[in-house]
Design brief:
With 222 residues, the protein is α/β, with parallel strands linked by helices. It has one domain: P-loop containing nucleotide triphosphate hydrolases (Rossmann fold), CATH 3.40.50. It has eight helices and seven strands.
Amino acid sequence: MGPANSQGFFLTFEGLDGSGKSTQLRKLAQWLEAERGEEIVITRQPGGTPIGDRIRELLLDSRTQIAPRAELGLMFSDRGQCIAEVIAPALEQGKIVLCDRFTDSTEAYQGGGRELGSGIVLELHEAICGGLQPDLTLLLLPDFARSLERARRRNDRKAGRGPDENRFEREDELFYRRVFDKYCEIARREPLRVVVIDGDQGVEQVHQRILQVVEKRLNNRA
């Protein structure tokens, strides 16, 4: 299927937990609506649909015991539903879709972190997602140790408040190093689609770098 759709624009945010991607997604959405008058649809994975939210609760709950391949299957079940229910209809209507995580996360976390390899992830992506690819992926890669520290500090603050979504954050540093390395591999493999925003810059500096990239891509689309 290749890039998403000539009418709409599909942009994904990727990175380790604690990389700041969710904050940057919100800031970009506000800018696109206020400065460009774009119609924006925001979604996330896992989640983003009623079925997906139920899958998210299961996948991220620290009490869940699940085999790596079963985990992989649930990730793609969630993704297939989100494409059918949210992403594809929005793109067909010419909207910009901003998605917090997509298949790159699955390749990084299950392919890399769980050591299942990229092959099975990419095969499932083709089969379940029809090969749908983002038009642009912003991969936030701040310093590895600081990103991990921020994620764990954030989850300590949230402990006991709201849903338990700490299952992945409880993995050890070697798991996250494999995730990080797989993200770097994806970026090297797909340099046109994946733009790496690296280094430990402030929120506003990162936002400005993202605006430069996104505005150029949207203008080229037009």
